Amino acid sequence: MSAEARPTLRPYLVLLLLWALYFHPLILHPAQTLRALDFDQLTEHPPAKALFHRIPESAIGAVPSWVVALHVLAAGAFAYCYARSHDLNEVGSVVAATGFMLSSKWMTHLLLAGHAVAAGLAWLPLVLLFAERGITRQSSWPVLYTGVTLALLTLGTHPQWAFYAVVFAVAWTLPRERARVPRWLLCWAGAVGIAAALSTVQLEAGQWSVRSGNLEANGALNIGLPTALALLGPSLSYSPPYSWEMQGVFGVYWLAAAVAAPLIAGKRARWQFGVLCGLVVFALGGAALIDWLPVFNLFRVPTRMLLVAAFPLAFLAGATTHALTQSTWSLETRSALARGFRRVVIFVGVPAIVGMWFAAGQVWWAFIAYWTTAVLVLPLFIRVLQNQTVRVRTRTGLWLAVLLADLVAPIAVLPAVKPRAELNPAPVLSEPLKP
């Protein structure tokens, strides 16, 4: 076994360190609770409601907070395992895992909006891992594992996100070989059946999120089109619920890496990039085209698909990093990354500037922090792309610094905690968006 393929604890320790640095307020004050955690929302969630009855009153805030934080850590570990199963090297796998674990979009929902019910998406990489094994191997055990992990995702996640995650997973795992398509269909049919049997309580709770007339197909367009001007970075001002429901919170350098993936990471990356584009198109108004399909027409706010898109975005960035480092930062791969950056600036950055022009309200810290960071790390990104003699490790280090800064800048202060005496302030709730 080569040194590159040999299992090692080093990447997991790196992920643990990044997680600990990010959640250090909770680690330093383990008996307190995450400030944005929405307890009214949690008590309406059947699995969480059952858990609350068994939590001592003195730990009513700390336990759910740690459940959320540990789900984030698990997401990083699962995403790393999945990336390694696709033969990404250690650096690329850590990038993919970090990009999903600390996704700006995910942390905005968890730690700003208080959507603790989004924590169950941590199981998504493991669902994909078992599903792909079930498709490629003539065994029923991976199908069973897929169903169990899918049930865990469903029980820990809002029904809308659970459904969107399944739609993504089915498309993501579509095999290239036609001979495996029947196995793909059987695998997902079995997994969904097992998951449905194990998560009946949560499926019955789907009525919480079903459409009640507030958002028809034209509403999807009315919400999606403004979101097309808000894919990049946080909103100009803090305006609940629009600051998370209609804001992509994607980083410009992460998007550049994802766009470059089909150019340098092989044929499979092209399909994966296509799936990512499909999710984005769905969120930006494409939901209106399939609004007539069963289940799809039940949910409001289709822009929530962008939260599921955080995983393929992170994975493709990891695939690009793998290709860059494996080629020792060849001119070809650096040129592809530069092309990806230019395309993001033209097709995402320019619309974002237009959206800022029409935005109103007082500028808040997240907007200033993100765009200040994006400008400050631009010289580092240019240095990564330059043809001047730069050591491979130096280029890799600079690239990782750019990605980490781009990822954390808009969410850096969100893991704030509060004492138990402040457990029930006025919650920040997401109300139905009106077209």
UniProtKB/TrEMBL annotation:
<feature type="transmembrane region" description="Helical">
    <location>
        <begin position="184"/>
        <end position="203"/>
    </location>
</feature>
<feature type="transmembrane region" description="Helical">
    <location>
        <begin position="397"/>
        <end position="417"/>
    </location>
</feature>
<keyword id="KW-0472">Membrane</keyword>
<feature type="transmembrane region" description="Helical">
    <location>
        <begin position="273"/>
        <end position="293"/>
    </location>
</feature>
<feature type="transmembrane region" description="Helical">
    <location>
        <begin position="305"/>
        <end position="324"/>
    </location>
</feature>
<feature type="transmembrane region" description="Helical">
    <location>
        <begin position="246"/>
        <end position="266"/>
    </location>
</feature>
<keyword id="KW-1133">Transmembrane helix</keyword>
<feature type="transmembrane region" description="Helical">
    <location>
        <begin position="110"/>
        <end position="131"/>
    </location>
</feature>
<feature type="transmembrane region" description="Helical">
    <location>
        <begin position="60"/>
        <end position="83"/>
    </location>
</feature>
<feature type="transmembrane region" description="Helical">
    <location>
        <begin position="344"/>
        <end position="360"/>
    </location>
</feature>
<keyword id="KW-0812">Transmembrane</keyword>
<feature type="transmembrane region" description="Helical">
    <location>
        <begin position="143"/>
        <end position="172"/>
    </location>
</feature>
<feature type="transmembrane region" description="Helical">
    <location>
        <begin position="366"/>
        <end position="385"/>
    </location>
</feature>
<protein>
    <recommendedName>
        <fullName>Glycosyltransferase RgtA/B/C/D-like domain-containing protein</fullName>
    </recommendedName>
</protein>
